[in-house]
Amino acid sequence: MISPEVLRGLPYFAGAGEESLKALAMGSEERTFQAGQVLFREDQPAEQLYILTRGEVDIQYDLNTGEHRTVDTLVAGDLLVWSALVRPYRTTALGIARRESAAIAIDARRLRELCDQDRELGFSLMKEIAQTTSHRLEGARVQLATRE
Fold first, then answer.
1. pLDDT tens digits for 47-90?
2. 125 Cβ partners below 8 Å, 6+ apart?
3. In this structure, are residues 16 and 24 in contact, taking their beta carbons and an 8 Å threshold?
4. Is there a contact between 81 and 49 (Cβ–Cβ < 8 Å)?
5. Could you tell me which residues come within 8 angstroms of residue 24 by beta carbon, excluding any fewer than 6 positions away?
6. DSSP character for 55?
7. How far apart are CA 66 and CA 83, in angstroms?
8. Domain span including residue 106
9. What is the domain-level CATH number for residue 50?
């Protein structure tokens, strides 16, 4: 379990109510990843939302040629597996730890229920997800434009 105070310190949960933070903390844990470890693969069930607390994670897309392109490198504070909150709740990319990393893993089903109950929490998270998605699409566009 992650402390509610730790979650309160993250911008994603700044507007969450006390009860929501406690419930969220109960469904959260810290995970560590070794350099080169795959955190998730494309089209897997998105069962957890991650918030990177340490290290770096590369987000890669499969180009259907056997080649993977890094479209973003995430650092502490960034969201991973945003698709845990967006139907059909499946991962959309490959995530690989660039170096030893740690993240808060939040149970996605519990988080979705809390977002339905606490609309301010849901709105805050969806704004972050929209920004994350926009950033990743821009990264993909740049990668495709520079492909030789």
1. 999 999 999 999 998 888 888 888 889 999 999 999 999 999 99
2. 12, 85, 111, 115
3. yes
4. yes
5. 4, 7, 13, 16, 106, 110, 111, 114
6. S
7. 23
8. 4-145
9. 2.60.120.10
